[in-house]
Amino acid sequence: MLIPCLVCESRFRPDEYFRACHDYDRGLDRVAWTCPRCGNRDELRVLPGELGFGYPRSGRFDVSDRVRVPGLRRRRQELRLDISLDEKVWRVPTGRHLVGTR
To answer: What are phi and psi for residue 3, nearest 5 degrees?
Structure first.
């Protein structure tokens, strides 16, 4: 399973992709991701079995594109989002600069 960057079309194994996730905004339930190759920054929502890419609008996060990632799971914590696939878990901490930018 390879997950693409929607800008440069580079493809990443899940471990490399999810290690590049940072800054979880619990209010909008979105994660910031920066491409390790081109530096593009995307905002996404981790959903069961897929990633939803989109933009904040009117106090909510609208998903416009989806990438299927079979087996992907998520668990919201107080100050982080836990992303899991197979036996691996990645923790994305709540980011200071995303909080309150609705």
So the answer is: -110, 130
